[in-house]
Amino acid sequence: MEPTMSMNRILALCAVALSSLALLVSLGRSQNTAVAAPNAATPTSMGDLGPADKLLLTASEGEPLSIVNREARIGWGDKATNRAWSIGAVHSDRVMRALMASPSIQEKVKELEEQAMATDAEFQKRAEDLQAKYKDVKPGDAGQQEGMQAFQALNAEYTAFRESKLKEVDQVRAGQTEDAYKQLVTAVDRVCEREQIDLVFRYIPVEVPFKAEGLQQVYSQIQLRTFVKHPAAVDITDAVIKELGVTEESPA
Q: Which distant-in-sequence residues (6+ apart) come within 8 Å of 212 by Cβ?
């Protein structure tokens, strides 16, 4: 009697084992055909869903939406722009002011100012010499016309100098501003590479006070305020300034 019971138990255990194995195989096949990508890695935790090639979302109307991983971004459809983009924003005016206040730029500006002041002093000396030369000339004297022509010639020369110097300063400042903007762009690129950001907007934070003296300037300030509302996390201004290694005199 005992051998028969042992055999029955063995047969029962074998049946249970075979049923469990069949169930596991069935589940494995179902997973592979339904969600698993060929040769895909095993999920890293019990909370993960996948791996999967795509996620198909049904719709109450129209075609279902297929969600895919497109270059580490959520993608859909067949267009290059059918994807989610990570965005950031930089207070460009704040960064540009910090760059333009850097010692190298200020030294060049100071050099131009000193050159202009030195030349101004030369013209002032020449004007004083002419005044001393013709101070005793009275209306109708022979030297009156000569003195007037000398003063007019000096004034024309000084005017030409001022225009030339202003143009030179403007060109230098334009070049410095362009260089500063290129530095800003380079710093933004580096920050974006680290933070995996795709798009960066120039903007002025909503809380920054208006600095305008008239309707037109107010409109310009409004146009520069790209976002009416935004999450604080999109602002990468501090990271960009840190990347540039510049110091702010008065952060806005």
A: 218, 220, 221
Bridge partners of residue 54, in order along the sequence: 68
Alpha-helical regions (H) of 88-214: 92-100, 103-133, 142-195
Residue pair 26/18 in contact (Cβ under 8 Å)? The answer is no
Measure the CA–CA gap between 71 and 21, rounded to whole angstroms: 39
Dihedral sign (CA 97, 100, 106, 112): negative
d(CA 94, CA 248): 8
Q: Which of 51, 54, 56 is nearest to 40 (CA)?
A: 51
pLDDT tens string 99-155: 999 888 889 888 989 999 999 999 999 999 988 988 888 887 778 888 889 999 999
With a threshold of 0.70, does the pTM exceed it? no
Asked if 86 and 73 count as a contact pair (C-beta separation under 8 A), the reply is yes
Please give the sequence-ordered ranges of beta strands (E in DSSP) within the chain, or none if there are none.
Answer: 54-57, 65-70, 73-76, 87-90, 199-202
Give the Cα separation of 187 and 134 in Å (integer): 61
Contact 123, 154 (CB under 8 A): yes
Query: Pairing relation of β-strands 87-90 and 199-202?
Result: parallel
